[in-house]
Design brief:
Helix content is 24%, strand content 31%. The protein has 111 residues and is an alpha+beta fold. It has one domain (3-109): Dna Ligase, domain 1. A 7-stranded antiparallel β-sheet has the order 2-1-4-5-6-7-3, covered by helices on one side.
Length: 111
């Protein structure tokens, strides 16, 4: 893993329609914040926390407020999205979150 790029908006904002992972930047254009993480210890913590999440059999459509672009050295990027109710989607597949990954994500955007 090379870096994490967090893009997030106001978690409390109401929207007239559901914001998808793909449409996040367009919908919140100019109003989302960006944080880039390259610290090896933080990347390792994220990878460890994410590895303990399980892929769900079903895929939910969520109203995205946080998008994390996971950039790898020699692999395609991955995208993790979260809504305000702590539902997560990784590469368009629902995942069952654990408390560690949720705490990690919240910590990064609340600094």
């Amino acid at each position: 893993m090379e870096k994490l790029t967090f893009r997030y908006g106001n978690f409390n904002i109401e929207t007239s329609s559901r914001v998808s992972c793909d449409n996040f930047e367009n919908f919140f254009s100019g109003s989302y914040k960006t944080v880039v993480i390259k610290d090896n210890n933080t990347l390792k913590e994220f990878a460890d926390d994410l590895s303990h999440c399980k892929v769900s059999d079903s895929t939910k459509k969520i109203d995205v407020r946080l998008k994390v672009i996971i950039t790898y050295h020699k692999k395609n990027n991955a995208v993790l999205c979260m809504d305000r109710f702590d539902n997560l989607i990784l590469n368009n597949r629902s995942i069952i979150a654990n408390q560690e990954i949720l705490s990690f994500l919240r910590k990064q955007i609340n600094k």
